[in-house]
Amino acid sequence: MKVTMIIPSYWGRIKSEGWREKDDVYDHPTPLDETGTLGRALKSLSILESKDFNLVVLGISTAQDIQGEVESKISSIIKNEAAKVKTIFFSYSHLDKIHQHLTNHGLEKFIPLLRLSGYSNVRNLCLFSAHLLGSEAAVLIDDDEIFEDPQFMEKAVEFIGKKIQADKVLAVAGYYINPDNDFFLNKEIAPWMTYWNKIDCMNRAFKEIIGKPPRLKETPFVFGGNMVVHRDLFTLVPFDPSVPRGEDIDYLINARMFGFKFYLDNQLSIKHDAPPKTHPTWRKVREDIFRFVFEKSKLEAQEPAPGMKRIAAGDLDPFPGEFLREDLENRIFHSNLMLAVDYLRQDDKRGAMECMNNIYLSKTKAIPEMNSFQNLIQLQKTWKNLMEYFSSEKVRQEVCRQLSIPV
């Protein structure tokens, strides 16, 4: 089986400049004047017993004016930490060549699907990279992770493409081990979380799915930085760029709607040691509001369609299902009200106002303007056509030559 591992790496302006208005927002992009975690991730590849795979490193910038610097920075890290794995670097200059190829062949309609901006678009480039290299399986990893299991790759592909009972396994989810060597979220529970019990909900899901046998079981959640997707799935179902974040679980929902299951392997773990997020609590809650409102709308907009399966919030219990029910509006209102009180106790009027704004946004901008279910159907059709075009060996070889990728 031909396998490609893809690691996206996010970079921002030098630390003294920080984030600017209109820059893309990611959890913790590495400032250009720092070393970041990519080198550490690449170095840890040396522990793997099986290195029979391609490695693609995707370079992502928060701003257009530093894209060249980001490419240079990542290139130097790859050269310094090159593992004994065939490594291919892919970034904006390479994407430009693919866009030019599509333009030359009158296929501009595909260009919006191939972008290095936003989590879902980056994940789609992960899938596209694997397909361009003719791989049967794509292994998605993040650059803030560390390989500690020498047999990680053997486990990653052990079930993919094989039948379990009557179902062919086309998507396998691994999980994260925290720096304290546990898979639970060890975060303090505050009173304002009474109506926003996300941490407790996720830990209950982890206990049930990760912490109990059998080794392989159907899962309602997935970690974007530890997932394996078979070609029979990734050539049919894309990540949805309309979801602002939480693209991994949204992808699972998309797959389920098209009749594909995700299975969690409770032996497929990777150490996750990310830099701390600097966003205030109200902003983190806002990001969750947008993703849950979007996904709830997608569930509610479902209609009978050929080859599609109706998915209910209960099918995704306990997480994210508990946040996709009718009481989501009530949860948003009460949790933000309680969080605002906490901010006022700390004399943080800005924080309290932003909590109130969260309630407002949940009823306005968070609600998709389009029919999110019908949008997914149209997105899927275009993605399928794009993948079919690049299934041609002639096309793939031509593009790989343009990118100086050995074929």
Brief description of this entry?
By secondary structure, the chain is of the alpha/beta class. Helices cover 39% and strands 15% of the residues.
CATH topology: Spore Coat Polysaccharide Biosynthesis Protein SpsA, Chain A
Main pleated sheet = 10 strands, mixed
Helix content: 25-40%
Give the number of DSSP strands: 12
User: What is the rounded distance between the termini?
Assistant: 16 Å
Number of domains: 1
Task: Walk me through this protein's architecture.
- There is one protein chain.
- This protein is an alpha/beta fold and 407 residues long.
- The protein has a single domain (3-183, 197-277, 370-402), classed as Alpha-Beta Complex (Spore Coat Polysaccharide Biosynthesis Protein SpsA, Chain A), CATH 3.90.550.10.
- The protein has helices spanning 38-44, 67-80, 92-104, 119-132, 152-156, 198-209, 231-234, 247-257, 281-300, 328-345, 349-362, 372-389, 393-402, and strands at 3-12, 30-31, 54-61, 86-90, 137-141, 145-146, 163-164, 167-168, 171-177, 216-218, 226-230, 263-272.
- The strands form 2 sheets. Strands 1, 2, 3, 4, 5, 6, 9, 10, 11 and 12 form a 10-stranded mixed sheet that branches. A two-stranded antiparallel ribbon has the order 7-8.
- Helix 2 (67-80) links the parallel strand 3 (54-61) and strand 4.
- Helix 9 (281-300) runs antiparallel to helix 10, helix 9 (281-300) runs parallel beside helix 11 (349-362) and helix 10 runs antiparallel to helix 11 (349-362).
- The longest helix has 20 residues, at 281-300.
